[in-house]
Model the fold of this input.
Amino acid sequence: MLESVNQDHTRVEKIWAAVVADNTQVNPNAGKLLEEEFPQVFYNGCRFHCSDLLVEDIAKVDEVNDTINDVKFMAKFVIGCSKVKAAWLRIQKTQKAGTLPKLFPDTRFAYCCVMLESLLGRDNCNEKVMKALIDEDGFESTTCKGITEQKMTDF
Done:
């Protein structure tokens, strides 16, 4: 809500509203009708929806898609293997930095970007946790016991 001052110096409150909708044919027409009836309503379609579609298209580029798939694999490996997850959390606590990687479903709203960011963590702290995890003496023999050789190599 914004305030303005009339010519007689009295304050007047103006209410501003925005319409957010997807890009179906019905919504732009509804937006035009609203603008005609209520000039203070600003209708511009759904910029967030368009931005999300753009990010989805970028995520389909081969190099980007390969990176996203690698990050998904790494997040699944850390989260899905109880001993690896426990070791990750122990190292994270020792280093007093890092977060558990996040794994998001293949849906909208740029989850791939959030997942990539979570793998690095703030100031690349998760990269340091991962390096410490892999460099541990018992990583292959104890932490990854029962995990296939190929999965450990891929990680």
Helices lie at 26-37, 47-59, 62-80, 82-95, 111-120, 125-135, 139-143, 149-154. The longest helix spans residues 62-80. The beta strands are 2-5, 11-14, 17-19, 41-43.
